[in-house]
Specification:
The chain has eleven helices and no strands. It is mainly α and 285 residues long. It starts with 9 loop residues before the first helix and ends with a helix.
């Protein structure tokens, strides 16, 4: 076997994939630290990474983390609402051409209006509580999830649907055993994007009509020129966002074992070569 044909073990490959971004991040932090000291940059303009770490140790447990809890609750609630709305809209768009022609353009047009501008109105309607912020989070996150879900559900080639119908599959079987598995990569891509947008939406919504949360803390610290704690809050927020993103990625890997080796849909591809599985294949799928 040639050297070029050999592949590194998966464990070593994963370590290498993780080491590269960590090395780049470490190099950037070193340059950042050196630039702050060499250029004598004031801490209220740009704090050094070491100062941010000290602030995390000092303020993290008592100030930042309690505010983060409020933001994460709003993020998860808004994210869940966005998923529910996107699921309903996607099914209606898929199966109703009238709904697709009449409502989809309105959904797209709604995205041209900055969602944050609706915050004062939502506060007037629902009061100074977490509900307006949850709604804003959902409004920010639902659109890419809806579009990616619709794209995935409509990406199925017609001959696969015809084959399932030839086996007397019911519409629910076609949806859950064919359309949905094929659409899962698109759905999870939308879920990942929606995760990051939900964190952003919840944080920004706390700038208006909020008395708690990371966004509220950042706004207060910015007004007081406490830039070091602003960066500390952003660091915690970024880590939390990456953790949520990674959690969705883990669920994706567990939900789609065929994404690496696709045995469950391989027999469908045999349709192109003329093979025809029997009804037992459909029931076992």
């Amino acid at each position: 076997m040639s050297v070029q044909g050999k592949r590194l073990p998966s464990g070593i490959s994963r370590i290498g994939d993780a080491a590269l971004p960590l090395a780049i991040m470490f190099a950037l932090l070193v340059v950042w630290e050196a630039a702050v000291h060499l250029l004598a940059i004031k801490s209220y303009v740009l704090p050094a990474p070491t100062a941010i770490i000290k602030e995390l140790v000092a303020s993290g447990p008592t100030i930042i983390l309690p505010q983060l809890k409020a933001t994460l609750i709003e993020t998860l609630a808004g994210y869940g609402l966005a998923v529910a709305v996107a699921a309903v809209l996607s099914i209606l768009i898929l199966y109703s051409s009238a709904f697709r022609r009449g409502v989809l353009p309105l959904i797209i047009a709604s995205q041209t209006v900055p969602v944050i501008t609706m915050a004062p109105v939502l506060v007037i309607w629902f009061g100074y509580n977490s509900l307006p912020r949850i709604i804003i989070t959902a409004l920010v996150a639902f659109f890419p999830l809806t579009i990616s879900t619709v794209t995935g559900l409509r990406s199925l080639e017609p001959q696969f649907i015809d084959f399932f119908r030839s086996l007397n599959a019911t519409p629910s079987q076609i949806f859950f055993k064919l359309r949905l598995p094929v659409a899962l990569p698109n759905i999870f891509a939308g879920l990942k994007v929606a995760t990051t947008l939900a964190v952003i939406g919840a944080t920004i919504s706390e700038w208006v009509g909020a008395s708690q949360g990371i966004g509220y803390l950042i706004a207060q610290d910015t007004a007081q020129l406490n830039t070091t704690r602003v960066f500390a809050s952003l660091t915690v927020l970024g880590i939390s966002g990456m953790a949520l993103f990674g959690l969705v990625g883990l669920v994706e890997r567990l939900s789609m074992p065929w994404i690496h080796a696709r045995p469950s849909l391989a027999w469908l591809r045999g349709l192109r070569s003329g093979s025809r599985p029997d009804g037992a294949a459909l029931r076992s799928y």
